[in-house]
Amino acid sequence: MSPRPNVSRPGTAGRTSGVNPLVGKLAAPVAVVALVALWQLVCIVGLVPSFLLPSPVTVVQALIGDWQLLAGHAVTSLAEAALGLAAGIALGFAAAILMDRFELVYRAFYPLVVLTQTIPTVAIAPLLVLWFGYGMLPKVVLIVIATFFPITVGLLDGFRSVDPDVIDLMRSMGANRAQIMRHAKLPASLGHLFSGLKISAAYAIVGAVIAEWLGGFSGLGVYMTRVRSAYAFDKMFAVIILISALSLALMWAVGALRRALMPWERSGD
Amino acid sequence: MAQLEVEHVSVAFDGVRVLDDVNLTVESGHIACLLGPSGCGKTTLFHAVAGLSVPDSGRVLLDGRDITGVPGQLAYMLQKDLLLPDKTIVDNVSLPLVLRGVSRDAARKRALELFDTFGLAGTADRWPSELSGGMRQRAALLRSYLFSQEFMLLDEPFSALDAFTKADMHVWFLDVAERFGTTALVVTHDVDEALELADKIFVMRGAPQAGKPTRIVGTERIACPRANRANFALTEEFLEHKRRVLELLG
Question: ipTM of the assembly?
Fold first, then answer.
């Protein structure tokens, strides 16, 4: 029998046990740098022809060279994402509050809410373009469809996570429904809401790009289809990196908002 | 100060009779305990007294006023502190005032005046998760007190605490109750706790699940002054009371 590898001691956090915290923090950046270096090496050696796989250096050059153009398109996509996300949040709030208040609404519409999630985004996008034209509307509608589900479900789970005894206690203090919502249910659902919002934020950017592929006047998806038809793969990669970066930034912003609005989560550490 | 009367209260759930003709009176300024085994329907009675449910028959009177099925009349506290995790201690305890329409600042000010008395000095801006179980129960009690100084319903308020904290809390609770002249009805399944706290113990007996609805089978009055309660458990008198109560419990 081979000796067992370093088994984590009980009581220590399983994932980080035995790893130096500094090394643990550097692991991901080092891995990324190593992969990019490998990619560059593959391109320099000529393992893959450069028109199929541009090297990281040429991708960065494309990103810098087209910066102004990219920024303009990014503004369009971001605006669509922000609008869609805002509408998704508003709709999610309304749906969750109605479903929480009226059991019948919950029973009637919850399955429909789940159904909207099974609609493949890519499949419905062409229909939306047919119905709503090449402007912003079809993009925003698509993002709303994609984002409102995680928000509604997150809020509902949060509302239902409140200890029934808390609700009894508040009723015994003479609280009305609105006060119970304001002081107990909404705060309890914030954590769930932000988890949903993080997923929604990433969906929003991707949703905007997919909708733009199918037609439009500007946006990162429109730019993408143009450079693809020109076989400008370096520019394709540049725009992919930009989309990832925007999604990451949006998710980070949701996290920052969470930390600002939920200071009690940091206590007791 | 207020007097509570429960008259002929009966409650059934899904055809199962849980409480049968419960009658009890808690005189103004007294502490009474409801003592009974787990699952006998103490909490059911509490819900009815707090106005959270309407009994099938009978009435609940506070100072002669019928409050049957009307919540928001009595302060109510449970075994769990039920402090809201997203509010600081001062905002938690002043919640009943805010719910009543008092401004947040005024509510905080009222609450802070009582922090020393309730042994909560220095905790105002902490989160509930930062406090020990005993401190959290003190905060919960202050919140109940701020809701109503007249009458407090306490459902196993100290049963989640360890023995040492519990003994401290008993002494402290009697002191606070004495100082404010609070009338209280405390539910417990702990005979010793009932004997240490109560001026009067209502013994409940029954097994609703087995078809025997719960009723009050006897009352035990305890004359020992509150100041002597800390060492009451060491006396002959205490044992005599305990023997009688245990007989009633069967």
Answer: 0.79
